[in-house]
Each structure stands twice: as structure tokens, then as C-alpha cells.
Amino acid sequence: MELSLLGCSPGVSRPFTMIVNFIAVLLLIQPSLPLGSGSMTRHFKWEVGYVFRSPDCVENLVMAINGQFPGPTIRAKAGETLHVELTNKLYTEGVVIHWHGIRQFGTPWADGTASISQCAINPGETFVYRFKVDKAGTYFYHGHYGMQRAAGLYGSLIVDVAEGEKEPFDYDGEFSLLLSDWWHKSVHEQEVGLSSVPFRWIGEPQSLLINGRGQYNCSLASGSAVASSNATTTGRGGPCRFLGHEECAPQILGVLPNRTYRLRLASAASLSSLNFAVTSHRLVVVEADGNYVQPFAVDDLDIYSGESYSVLLTTDQDPAANYFISAGVRGRQPNTTQALAILNYKPNPPFRPPPSPPPVTPRWDDYSRSRRFSLKVHALAGRSPKPPRKSDRQIILLNTQNTVHGLVKWSINNISLALPTTPYLASIKYQLKHAFDRAPPPERFPENYNITRPPPNPNSTVGSQVYRLRLNSTVDVVLQNANAMKGNVSEIHSWHLHGHDFWVLGYGEGRFTAAKDEGHFNLEDPPLKNTVVVYPYGWTAVRFAADNPGAWAFHCHVEPHLHMGMGVVFAEGVHRVRGIPREAIACGLTAGMKKAAAEDDAGN
Ligand code: C2O
Ligand code: CU
User: Where do the domains of the chain lie?
Assistant: First the structure.
């Protein structure tokens, strides 16, 4: 299936754009068709349910929206309001949807995090997500209850610049590529395994997917098979299929020669760090996590779970051929074939396999290469705010793996996050005493802790504490990586902050020392992001303004890690929050106080 049929814009040449603009002008004359006025509301009616699908040519249960997997792409303009009426059609599970990268200013209850911003939506019930998309960029949405993201509950969310505004770069057409990984084992089995004694790890994914399409265990035989014009090539696990009628056939990006295309990449991966590349084509990185960056060219790029990038690709190669687009595993010893898509130079037949093999994914453990890429990302001058010179508070978060009551957990400063039954937003707003652990969580970890030595940390516990931040204060967080349970193993994590973007001030190796490392913080052009990687045995420092009243998750975006407790909760200015809808808090200790809540809002 051609990408254009999926609702994404195909290659549009420059003269064509002019025609489209002309039509837009004509349409604007009719008042019933407001094209992109900032106050417009876009309505969606969604049903979440399981369907049978074969995303990697193997049939499985997939969590879909309106029968679609991945879910429908949302496309809006900056300043518009989205109104998503979500009905839970799962038979026995609650559900919520998080709008990853959207800051939810003034609507913290619409952030879609179960136990933090709202109660899970029960089977049969409907919840309305209504919020503003205030900033152009590449985003996505996904389930945020249990490990439902890994069950396939995700889709793209693209915000265009407001009418009359311009992106700081030009392109002729664009494609959205949502990357993910896929298991044949159900999410329920994965969750139970991770919470069992003895521990059962989920293992490596069976497949990697691009827009929900991958091929389980198919490998391209090198040389001859790839070069043949057959629609099928044969590998150890069976033939790779390029015919196009299977659900798992690769995504085709139809392009014209000598044009520039914007590829919007986002990773909804559960576990895998990915490397993205297109055979023979350079990629110019222009956007990261919904913020413009100083353009830089690469042959490939690493993308961690929760990140998004826009890259510009110029179709300047031999137009007689098609080319492979690939995503492969990095950061873990890979045991999964690359995901492939095809860059189809028109008028070549779309499903003709490319003559040259797919790009080779760089070695999985070449972290210096990954670090070099991270350090290339800088804010675009004049298009993003600079950080305050100083912060009001510094929180250092030690990331460790350990056992608590026989269970394998991830802990932050020795606390493994266990979400409460009452959403934090409600229990903080209504000052409930017994909804979560009231003691303030630790701001740092013991001086004598050796980050290179494997745990156990005997003091590790399970808890639900909250970091209370002063509204409008500037907060620094240093994520400190350490050894996992096994000797000489430190894992990659990608940390995501809800409700805010942060400036990435720096990365370092070994233990963070304020005196030595703060002097090297980048305060000139640090990129604004919402997700950032922490390398093995390294640290990453971020700064943000606590300027968004609400309760916000800050967690590792690796789905099994979050399930094992790898997260914290920040809250600021919750007393200022007005208008929490009743349906958002109809559970736990706030289930019976709907009326009081409404009165409180009115009376304040
Ligand atoms: Cu995309 Cu809390 O996650
Ligand atoms: Cu992690």
C-alpha cells in the first residue's frame, strides 16, 4: 500500500503546492470551512478494541483504534484544540491515552496517565480528551496504563505550524514513520512474567515495525536474491514479502527525483533503541521532540523510545533504482531483524526490491558513536528559548536495578514506583492524606554508593512519593546511571517528562560531580526535548521550568522498565488547577467525592 493512501501527504512538487495554496485561499472565503484558524476544534470519535492482525506476517491480537493499527494519524495546526471522544471497547481492561510531547497547559487531567492524571476508563465507558496542541512538531500518542503501548496502542500526532507561520526549512513533501517493536507473547504474559518470582524477562522483540509493518524472521539473502526482480527474497526464516497485499508488506514511500522530503520519525518502541537509515541517502536533522534544531547531516541516526525527529532527505541518487529504509536495534545485543520500508523513486514499480542491500546497523554497543550523535543536537538559534542561567533546585536521580521482596525492580534513589489507586492530580488537589506516601522522596543518593558495582541495595523499597516543585521555579535533574544486577552491565534508559520540555544541558561518563561537571553545562544552545537518553554508567543533566500546574510523570520510556518501577512523579501548583472533569477522578478515594470536588472548584 502506498503511504499516500494512508492519509499522509505524498510527494508534492513545488508548482503543485502553489495550486494547493490557491485552493486554500478559495476555501477560506467560505465561513463554514475555517481552514486552520487558531481557535478551531478538531473532533474525533475513537473506540479502542482488540483485533486480529498480522503486523509481522504472524497473526496476533493487536490493540487498535476504530479497527486501525497503528491508530489513526492526527493532523492539526498549532493553536488548535483536539477533542477526542474515547470509548473503551476492550472487554476486561481499563484504558487511557497519553499525548506524548503535548504539554497540556491548563488541562493536566487530559495527559492520559492512569493513576497520575486520571482514572483508567472502564470497559464500556467514554472519556473526552480535550486539549490544545500549542506547538508545531512531530508527536505521537499511546496507551499509558500497564503495558498497553506494547500491545499496539499508538499512533502519530502531527502538528503543523499555524496558518501564516513558516517552518525554518523547505521541503516538497513529507512522510510520517512511526517505529516500534513487537512481541508474539501477549502483553499480559509479559506483565505477569516481569512481576513473577522467579523473574521472567520478556526477551528481545520478534520484529521491528515501521508504521505497524515488519516481517518476522525473514532475512534478505545477500546479493543475488536482493538483486533479483522477484517480488520475494528468501532468508533463513522464510521469504521476505514485498508484494504489497499482506498487512506486513513494507511501507512504500513514493518520491520524485531531485526533491526534498521531510521524514517525521517517532519511536513508540517498548524496549529497543533503534538506528534509522536510508541506503545511499544523507539525512539532515531539523527537529527533535517538537523543537527545531540546528540542521546537521548524518548517514543514520539513533532514536530512543519516546523520541521524535524530523529529517530532510533529498532524492539525489540514481532514479532508476528503489532504496531500502531500515531501522535496526542498538543498545542491546540484537536478536531481531531490521524493519524495512522502501523509498520508491517514481515511476519505478513500488514493490520492486532495491538493488542494493539495506544499510548495516552500526554495532549495538558502540556507545561512543551514539554519544557523538547526541552531542550534535543543538537548539536552532532564534527559534527556541534559552535556559535560565541558574536553577533553584537540583535533584539527582540514581537509576538502579535491584530486588525488592524477591521481585526484580528498577529504583530511583532506592524507591521503585508503585502507582496508587487514586490519581495524584486529584489526591493532591483535594489534599487527601492517605492516597500516596507523603514523605518527600530523596533528592540524592549516598555519597559512598559505587555506581560501577552491582547491587543488591538492601535499602530499596517500593513507594509512591511525589517530588513537590515550587510553581515557576527552575529545576535541574541529573539522571545517574549505574550497574544493573549483573556485573559489568549498565543499561540504556530513555527518560521522558510529561507536561514540559527540558533543556539537555549535558551528558557525562561515570559519576556526576557538581563541582567538576556543572561548569561544562551547555547554557548557550542546549536542545529542548521531552525525552533524553542516559548512557551506560553515564549521567545526563536536564533543566526545566516548573511552570505547568499539575501532576506529571517522569519515567524511563522503556515499557518493561516503567512496569518494574522506573519512574518518579513531579507536582507543581496543583492548588491552581481548576475544572478537573468528574469522570477523570471517579476511582479510588475520590470516587465518592465528585460533588465536593465540583463545589471546591466553584468556591475557589
Ligand atoms: Cu510516551 Cu509517560 O510516556
Ligand atoms: Cu529504562
Answer: 2-166, 175-375, 393-598
